[in-house]
Amino acid sequence: MAPEKQHIESLEDMVFKNRNREYGAYYLRMRYRKYVTVSLIIGVFIIGAVVAYPVIASYINKNRLIKEQTSVETEILNMPKEELPPPPPPPEALEQKVKFTAPVVVNDTVEEGLATQDELENKPSTELPPTDEEIKIEETCRDLHRGGRAALIPGR
Hints:
By secondary structure, the chain is mostly helical. It has a domain at 11-64. The protein is 42% helix and 0% strand. The chain contains 5 helices and no strands. The protein has helices at residues 11-15, 25-30, 32-64, 117-122, 132-146. The longest helix is centred in the first third of the chain and has 33 residues, at 32-64. The N and C termini lie far apart (116 Å).
């Protein structure tokens, strides 16, 4: 008995088994491998051409170059030398204008530790609370900035 060749369905045939194959998706999936292979070959060819172009161009231009040896001779003429002005005199020694005072070492007194809560409560306050007139002026200015009418009404 010869082993029978089993027909294995492709993935596309399984997916489109009971579906419409006429609208184009089945056609695209059947030819997908061919399109990928052709695009890969074209891409490799383009990349190879881009890489090979500078190498080929340098080889061709190397053979075209004609090397000429030229020599240039110059004669030094007897030109009169220009006389330069004399250099300026060196600057005079600078006198010390500020007298040097040696630093003096002083023993500073540093208060140790932070103030306690009792010390802060017993300390008299140096800042006075605002007066009634200052509070009214501040409220009026705040209302003006907000665009309120309270500032425009007298007696308020």
